[in-house]
Amino acid sequence: MLESPIEFLKGVGPARAELLRSELGIYTFRDLLYYFPFRHIDRSQFYYIRDIDPEAALVQVRGRFTRIDSVGEKRATRLVGSFQDEAGGLMEVVWFRGITWIKKSITPGTAYVIFGKPGLYKNRVQMVHPEIEPLENFSKPLKGGLEGVYATTEKLKARKVDSRAIRKLQETLLPQVLSKVQENLPRYLKSRQQLLDRSEALQQIHFPESVERLSLAQKTLKFEELFYIQLRLMQVKATRNATIRGLVFKAVGDHFNNFFNHHLPFELTNAQKRVIKEIRKDMGSGQQLNRLLQGDVGSGKTIVALLCALIAVDNGFQSAIMAPTEILAQQHFETIQSLVEDMPIQVELLTGSSKAAYRRRLHADLENGQVHILIGTHALIEDKVKFQNLGFVVIDEQHRFGVAQRSRLWKKNATPPHVLVMTATPIPRTLAMTVYGDLDVSVIDELPPGRKPIKTVHRFDSHRLQVFGFLKEEIQKGRQAYVVYPLIEESEKLDYKDLMDGYESITRAFPAPHYQVSIVHGKMKPEDKDFEMKRFAEKQCQILVATTVIEVGVNVPNASVMIIESAERFGLSQLHQLRGRVGRGAEQSYCILMTGNKLSNEGRKRMQTMCETNDGFRIAEVDLKLRGPGDLMGTQQSGALNLSIADIVKDTVLLKSAREEAEYIFENDPQLQHKDLALVRMHLASVIQRNPNWSRIS
Ligand code: ADP
Ligand code: MG
C-alpha cells in the first residue's frame, strides 16, 4: 500500500504524478506521507497592519493590492506592491525574484491573504516575498487552527499544485494508509524519549490538533530520522572495520625520526603533535585509518600530512597527496620537495598538464616503487596510475572531491590504503557527527605562534578611493595584495565583465611601471595562470586581481591585504577561506570586504560576523545557521543530509540522544537480534534498500 505509485491516489492523475515525481521526488504513497509541512501557521489569526510588530516572526494579513510596479533597472529590478488592509493600513510588499510571474499572477483590487515575515524599511513595515493566496481559496481554519504549509516550486504553483493542493492530497491519503504504518522504534525507547506512536505522529504532523501534539509529532519524527542515520553510520563503520584489514604500520622509523630531529623548520604546535599521534595510532592498529583532519586555514596541515607520509615510507609504502587544483598541487609539491630536499625521499608531481614523456617515466617509477610520495590533482585517480604499494592517501580540501572519487583511490591496492581527509572548512561538531559519522575526527585547534590576527573591515563601494589609498600605503611598505571578484556560474558573463572592469580600474589607479598588476581567472590556460601566480609569489607584481581560483591553499606570506569585491555575494565559509590567504607572514594583515550600499539582513550579518571573528569554527556555526546545512561545501553528496524533518543546527539535543540510543543498542546487540529490536532491524533494512544514498554512505 505504502509503495503504491502516486498516480493511484485519488486526485492525482498521470500529469500531476509526473510533476510530483520530477519536482518533489514524490513517487509513492510513502513519499507523500513523508512529505511534511515545513511550517505550520495559525490560520485563526489575522493582523491589522497598524498592529504588526516588525520584529514578529510571521504574520497573516487580509487585504488588497492597490498597485504593483517594477522599480529599478537590470540586476537591481524589483517589484513593489502597496497592500492595504480592511482598516486602511498600508504596507509595502517587495519581490526580488520571479518578478514576471508574480506580476502576472496578482490582480490589484482582488482580496488576498498574505503571510510572511514582516520587516522594517525606512521606518515602515514591509514584507519581502510573502506567501499569497486569494481570499476566496483560503481554507477555513481547521481543528486547532493550525495548518501545514508544504513547500512547492514555481512550476508546481503555475500548474495549481500549491501548498493547499498538497494538503488536500494528504487529506485523502492519511485515512487510507495510517493503519498500515508499522511502528519502528521499540516501546522502551519511545517511553524513555517520550515519543508518540509513529502513525499518531504522522497524523499530527500533517493535521495537528494542538501546538503540543504538533511538537511531540515533530520530535518523534525527527528522532526517528536521526536515530536511523546514526544506526546506519555505526553499521557502516563496523562493517568496514570487520571486513577490511588495515595495513599495519608497526613503527616510526629512520625517515620520520631523521626529519623530525633534523629537518623540521619549526617546532610543531601541541595540536599538530596530538593529531600526528592520533593518526599514528590508527596506522598501527590493524584497522584502516579513516580520519577527517580539520584545521583552520594556516593551522599547518601540510606538515602533518608529510610526517604521516614518512611513516608510510618507513614501513615500505608509498603515499599520495591529492589536491583540488593544479596551483595547489604545485604548491604542495614545492613545499614538500624543499622540506625533504636533503633526504633520500623521491617526491613527484602529477597533474593534468604533466607532459607525456614525464608521465611515462613516472608511471614506471611508481610501479617499481621508486617514488615515495606522489602529489597531484584528479590526475592521480586515473586508472593508468598504478602504485607498487600505496599505503597512505591524503585528500586535501576534500570538499572538492566526491565520495566516488575517494573510493577510486582505494581500489589502487589489494588492501585499501589508510585515508586522511584534510579540510579547512570547519565542520561544526554536530554536523561532523552526522555527515562524517563513519569517520574519526582530529582537530588542529591552535595556530602556529606569532601570527597576528587579521584585521577585517567592511567598506561600501562608495569608499573605494580611501581603500585604494590604504592599499598604496601598504604597497609602499613592500606588501602585496589580492583583489578578488566573485565568479558564480549562472551569471558567468556578467561576473567576467565585472572582473575585467575591476582589473582596468585598478591598473588605472595603480599605473605601470611603478605598479605591476597581475590577473588570474578560470578561463586562462593553466600555464598562463601559473605564470601570473609565480610573478606574484616572486614579488614581481604587487597586486593580484583574481577570481576565487585562489580560494584554496595558496601561500604567499608577503601578501598582507585581501580585498574582496561584491563580498555580499560570497558565503561565509568562502569569505573565511579567502581571508586565510593573508595573515601568513609576520606583518599585520588586513581583509577589506567591499559591498554595495544596499545589503540584505543576511548579507549584513555575514559582513558583521567576518569583522567580529577570525575563528573558523564560529564562522561555520553562523554559516550553518544562515544557510542551512545543504549548502555547506562537500555535504551535498553525503546522502546522510537529505533530512526530511530534522534540523542539524536546531536539533542538536535530539541528535545527541538519538546517537546515544543508537550507540547503546549497537554496542550491546550489533546484529539487532533481540526480539524488541525486530522492528528496528526490519526498518533499517527497508530504508537501506529504498534509499540508494544510504548504501552509498560508505
Ligand atoms: P593549512 O593548514 O592551511 O594547509 P599550511 O600547512 O599551508 O596550512 O601552513 C601554513 C603556514 O604555516 C606555512 O607557511 C607553514 O610552513 C607554517 N607552519 C605550519 N606549522 C607551523 C608551526 N608549528 N610553526 C610555525 N609555522 C608553521
Ligand atoms: Mg593547506
Number of helices: 24
Which whole number gives the mean pLDDT?
86
As a percent range, the share of strand residues is: 15-25%
| Structural classification | alpha/beta
Distance between the termini: 31 Å
CATH topology annotation of the largest domain? Rossmann fold
How would you sum up the global shape? globular
Output the strand order for the largest sheet. 6-7-4-3-2-5-8
Alpha carbon gyration radius: 29 Å
Largest sheet: 7 strands, mixed
CATH class of the largest domain: Alpha Beta
The helix fraction, in percent, is 40-55%
CATH architecture of the largest domain: 3-Layer(aba) Sandwich
Q: How is this fold's topology laid out?
A:
Elements: H1 14-24, H2 29-33, E1 39-42, E2 59-71, E3 78-85, E4 90-95, H3 99-105, E5 111-116, E6 118-121, E7 124-128, E8 131-134, E9 146-149, H4 154-158, H5 163-177, H6 187-193, H7 198-206, H8 211-243, H9 254-263, H10 270-284, E10 290-295, H11 301-314, E11 318-322, H12 326-339, E12 347-350, H13 356-367, E13 373-376, E14 390-396, H14 403-410, E15 418-423, H15 429-435, E16 440-444, E17 455-460, H16 464-476, E18 480-484, H17 492-509, E19 517-520, H18 526-537, E20 543-546, E21 559-564, H19 572-579, E22 590-595, H20 601-612, H21 616-627, H22 652-668, H23 678-690, H24 692-696
Parallel strand pairs: 4-7, 10-15, 10-16, 11-13, 11-14, 12-13, 14-15, 17-22, 18-20, 18-21, 19-20, 21-22
Antiparallel strand pairs: 1-9, 2-3, 2-5, 3-4, 5-8, 6-7
Helix pairs in contact: 7-8, 8-22, 9-11, 10-11, 20-21
Bound molecules: adenosine-5'-diphosphate and magnesium ion (MG).
Residues 266, 268-269, 272, 295, 297-303, 424, 448, 555, 584 line the site of adenosine-5'-diphosphate.
